[in-house]
Amino acid sequence: MLRIRAVIFDCYGTLVDIQTNEGKDEIFAYLSLYLHYYGAEINTATLKSLFHAEKEHYLNTRQERYPEFDIEVVLKKILQMRGLNNPFLAESCCKIFRLVSRDRFQLFPDSLPALRELKSRGFLLSMLSNAQNVFFYQEIDMLGLRQFFRYFVVSSYWGFRKPDPRIFYLACSLFNVMPGEAVYIGDDAGVDIKGARSIGMRTVLIDREQRQKTQEPKPDYYTTDLRKAAEWIKENG
Questions:
Q1: Most buried residue, 42, 62, 92, 155, by CB count within 10 Å?
Q2: For position 43, what pLDDT does the model report?
Q3: pLDDT value, residue 215
Q4: Is the distance from CB of 111 to CB of 226 less than 8 angstroms?
Q5: How far is residue 113 CA from its own chain's centroid?
Q6: Cα(235)–Cα(212) distance, rounded to whole angstroms?
Q7: Residue 107's beta-bridge partner residues?
Q8: How high is the pLDDT of residue 236?
């Protein structure tokens, strides 16, 4: 078996303890009020309906098995329909959307200790996340994570998402390592473990609430604590 050289992390739910609710009416209420400053008369219900319709249209037009949408593109399209072509407005709307939808946002207690240990041991670290490019990088900066990683692969940039095998191949290729030389750490067996295993990567499932012990596919290593995952990786590296 090849020695592990690269460790590729999922972000949300693995390193970042986050809870979001994107169905809140408050999201679109705040956006509606914000857009009034730019002369747009669009009520909460209409804005919410337009958003979901444009998102569905975007996904349906992607020729992908696991399509990913880009929230900035969707909101920009809605703004243009209302005659708003300010180049910075869609980005600011995305940030408001994210801020209001977030109910919890912090690091797990074991995240930094595990990252420091793996970094000190010389492992190549990168991050692969089903996430939105428009606010992903600011969020990892808020939490002090960028210092640990050389590369980031964000699904909305590429237009397809985990468990698509291509996105895992991409993450390995950035370090010029074979899949067998990399391990993927994620919190979702049906997405993270499935996708990584499909190209021959080793896998770690972090299951802090112990809800996925019997789910398939099985990881190479199962744990409730990232520090234990780091120990397992060191033993196999």
A1: 155
A2: 95
A3: 85
A4: yes
A5: 21
A6: 24
A7: 16
A8: 87
**Per-residue pLDDT, 78:** 96
Q: Is the pTM of this model over 0.85?
A: yes
178 close to 2: Cβ distance less than 8 angstroms? yes
Look-up of token digits 């939808």: 101
Question: What are the beta bridge partners of residue 221?
Answer: 204
- pLDDT in the model for residue 57: 96
Residues 6 or more apart whose Cβ sits within 8 Å of residue 158: 68, 167, 170
Backbone angles phi, psi at 14, to 5 degrees: -110, -55
Q: Which residues pair with 106 in a beta bridge?
A: 17
CA distance 82 to 32: 12
Domain 20-103, what fold? DNA polymerase; domain 1 (1.10.150)
Cβ proximity of 146 and 126 under 8 Å: no
Work out whether strand 102-107 and strand 6-9 pair parallel, antiparallel, or are unpaired.
unpaired
3-class secondary structure, 237: coil
3-state secondary structure of 183: strand
Topology of domain 6-19+105-236 in CATH is Rossmann fold (3.40.50)
Please give the average pLDDT of every successive group of 10 residues along the chain, which has 237 residues.
94 98 96 95 95 96 96 96 92 98 98 98 97 97 98 98 98 97 98 98 96 91 98 92
Domain ranges of the chain: 6-19+105-236, 20-103
Residue with tokens 């009416």: 25
